[in-house]
Structure formats: C-alpha cells, structure tokens
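Hi Prof. W.,

I finally got the Protein DedA prediction working! I wasn't sure whether to trim anything, so I left the full sequence exactly as given:
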Amino acid sequence: MFDFITSLLASTGSLGVAALMLVENVFPPIPSEVIMPFAGYLAANGDLSFVSVVIAGTIGSVAGAFLWYWIGSAVSEARLRRLIARHGRWLTISEQDLDRSLAWFRRNGGKAVFLGRIVPGVRTLVSIPAGMTGMPLLPFLLHTGSGSLLWTAALTISGYLLEAPFAKVEM
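And this is what came out:
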C-alpha cells in the first residue's frame, strides 16, 4: 500500500493528493497518515508546493466527507430505526442507543464535526449523523473544511519536517 501511494503521489502531484484524500475518506483503510506526510516530504524536496498539497488534501477530504453527509441525509433516521428494529440485536445497537447518540450530536454537532475531522476512524463516520440529523450544509462544510485543513496541514508539516530522515521512516 505504501509503495502504491508514494508512486501515485510522485507521478500525479497535488491532483493525486486530492484524489487519495477523497478515497481515504470513503474507504478508510487508505490512511491520510501516509498520504499527507509523504506529500509534505515531496514539498520539502521541491517536487510539490506545500500550499497546493495542503489545499488539495483539504479539498479531497471535504469531498469525501460530503459524500458521507449525503449518504447520511439519504438514509434518514426513520430508515435507520427500521434497520435497528429488525437487526439491532445483531448490530449491538438499540433504539435507545440511537436516541442518545442523535441527541448528543444535535447538541454538539458543529464541535463534533470539527473535532471528528481530526480523529482517525471518526473522520469518516462523523459526516453520517450530520446528514442524518439535517445539519445545514454550509455549517457542515465550514466545520469539515476547518477541521480537515488543520489535520492535513499538521500531517503535511510532519512530512515536510521529516524530509531527510523520511527514507528511514519508510522502512
């Protein structure tokens, strides 16, 4: 996986960064923790622009988050309740669990989306309740964009600062 990501970034540049970050948000096993630091390394070497890497990573991340937001809004709370009623025992979730989760998200939606964009594993999932609870699109995009910008910039900076020893980290 590492070799695929590094060769793709080396050949496609910022467009590859955006594409991989979009895919990372849709299919989490492709880690941003590999994509963005390597892109930062390429920026430190002068192969890519630091600013374009951060912008491309943020755009890809927001695009992937929007897809999950849209899925969350399409699924709807009523559909999820029917699924839980039928299969909740196997999914280990009850309607009371759903009620508590959605109530918490409605109280903390903006903060949850912003902070969720920084936490691995949560990054993908936080967009679903945002869409499901009807969080307005503009606040969702602002919280997602600012959290994603912070995350992609931090990872890019780490790769930029690791420039010389990056080959050792790869092993």
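The helical segments are 2-26, 32-44, 50-91, 95-116, 122-125, 127-132, 137-161, 166-170. Does that look reasonable to you?

Thanks,
D.
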